[in-house]
Write a structure and sequence with these properties.
This is WD_REPEATS_REGION domain-containing protein. One of its GO terms (molecular function) is U3 snoRNA binding. It is found in: Nucleus, Nucleolus. With 716 residues, this protein is mainly beta. Among the domains are: 320-619, Methylamine Dehydrogenase, Chain H, CATH 2.130.10.10; 632-715, no CATH class. 10% of the residues lie in helices and 50% in strands. It is built from five helices and 57 strands. The strands form 14 sheets. The chain has a five-stranded mixed β-sheet with strand order 34-35-36-37-41, with no helix packed on it. A four-stranded antiparallel β-sheet has the order 1-57-56-55, with no helix packed on it. Strand 47 and strand 48 (520-525) form a beta hairpin. Helix 2 (651-659) runs antiparallel to helix 3 (664-677), helix 3 (664-677) packs across helix 4 and helix 3 packs across helix 5 (691-704). The longest helix has 27 residues, at 621-647. 42% of the residues are buried.
Amino acid sequence: MKDGIKTLKLKQCVDAFYTGGSVQWCQNGKTIFTVCGSIVKALNVEDGLPCYDIGNADDNSQITCAVLLEEPSFSITLAYANGLICRYTLHSTDSVKKCSTELNRRWKSVHSAPVTVMKYCNDATLLATGAPDFLVKVWNVDNQNCIASLRGPSAVSDIVFVDSLRLIVGYSDGSSSFFDVSSETKLIYTWKLHTSQIVSVLLQDEKEVSFLSRDQTVSTVNLETCKKVKVMPVFEPMECGVLADHELFTVGEEGILKCWTKNGSKLIRSIKISDCRIDEILYNEVQSQFLLVASDFNLYLVSKENFSITRRYVGFNDEIFDTAFIGDEENTLLVAANSPDIRLYDTKTWSCQLIRGHTDNVLSISSAAWDSSMFVSSAKDNSFILWKLVTEGTLFEAKKLAVATGHTNNVTAACFSRMSKRKFILSVSHDCTLKLWSLAKLSEDECVKLSASSTFVAHAKEITCLDISANDRLCVTGSMDKTAKLWHIDSKTMQLGIAGTLPGHRRGVWDVRFCDFSEIVGTCSGDHSVRVFSISSRECIATLVGHSFAVLQMIFVSHGKQIISADSGGLLKIWDLNTKECIKTTEAHYDKIWALVASEDESKFVTGGSDGRIGIWEDVTAKELEEEERLRAKRVSDDQKLSNLMEQKRFSEAFSFTLTLDKPYSCYMVISKLMETDSLELTKCVAALSREQLVTLLDFATKWNTNGRTARVIFL
């Protein structure tokens, strides 16, 4: 930190990996395959990060269905909205995180609508595809021939093979059909047992099959007699179900995982997993876990034994508004996205927990300097909530300590006092007010309702940002009225007072920051600039111009000697306050950067933006300096070695050595010496060169030919 930050390198990136559609889980339980637009992402279960992609990200057609096949070869088959079916072979390596993909086969589905269901038969020789065009087509995988086209009464919702030639199809109108592709008539029997869509067809054995429907019933039929055995009510519109160890597990509209007896006649146990609908459930025998896929793009790993949630992954963050580190070791990251739920990430596994409490989108999160387990969140529901994070093993529980509801519009920011002597919170809102809230009556035993000790109409337009000085005596606010204002804080009487105005911006102010090491305050604005003001004189002492977009975030680093700023174009800039110049520009996001926070030791930084990505950046300045020093030492050593060879007139060795260096002129000088002493020796040296060395020599010759003084060598 003494020399400042010169380079930031992306260490990890938490990007969208699931945007709806099919989810597949490999047999060993280590990798989950999720559809993300036009590609499939392979998610490593251990660290929660995508390890490789399948498909072409530049393809305009979206994936509508995917099916994984592990025997006889490891492959995944994808169906696209344009009617194309592609089969990729996955060549795995010793590492779970690495796998090469190869497009093995590709053919047209010949459906008049996108394929929504795909299933392989038991020996993987046949593939059945179903679509909303009422058709199921059965394909010979080896030659891509359609051996059967089976028409039904409505859109296909599920398919299951009974054996290699017989299959059962469920439809959206509640009917289901039994087919034999080897017979002339194809159709064996049709059942009309339900009044709504068949969501799952579960083969209990070769004699019985169960149908799960959105009409809140489960029906069982005998495949030998084709007669109905039983119909049982489950009192919930189901979305999916699986059989595991002679028990039926279902999910649906209520977001509850339920365990039933095999035929659905008795509910054994249940647990609430999500507030949203759960669309899919998968079971892994090796891990003895369920994978649940919710409609809000969240994935849950649930233990079969005790129904506990072991992992939770957020597949799509939408737009990220703010982030904050919490905890002593800063291994936990709070994220405010376009949602009422706060996301709590474990940065080691990237498993996520949701903290519920707000009724509208959370806009800001801030942690307390005097208590690493305490944080405050503000939202569009005109309130802010004070939380305390309690650790229970590998899980966290956020306990609500206080709620404040005094604002009449969106609460855009809330900050804790920096010192623990007299604790308070400041908040700003789109209602143009600045409020101070005392925490003297705060209790960890019950949730209290806070009341404002002081309120000021601080600006003429919406207030966007807030910061508190290190000594708790001043705070600064920024607004869309193009100004930032300083305010006195009397922590004894819990009152606010105006301290001055910081004018100069030509657009609204998006962020304000105090420097902890000097009496300056920074502001950034929609006018593409960052300004630094003196607190004592209220004068602008520096204007940093270089952004081409609105500057949304800024922080002081390197003991106040540098500033890192982020703009709406996705760029990060590092500024030197002494020279007032930009040291480095980094393309960090594809869209607006709303969040920029640093760890306490400034070794890593977190950014979040409108593209839904969370970037973890590390300061690699010291590593780059070490690498530069190593390369410099190597250059000196190589130059000395070449000089020694030349002085000792070991020109043959010097010639081979110069080809390993990127120094065409040194090679030219060696060749000149060889031509002067012994041209036959030069011929032997050239003949002994390897193919790679000859290519290097030809590259050098191309450069020599551009200069009349060195061109003569190429005619040797």
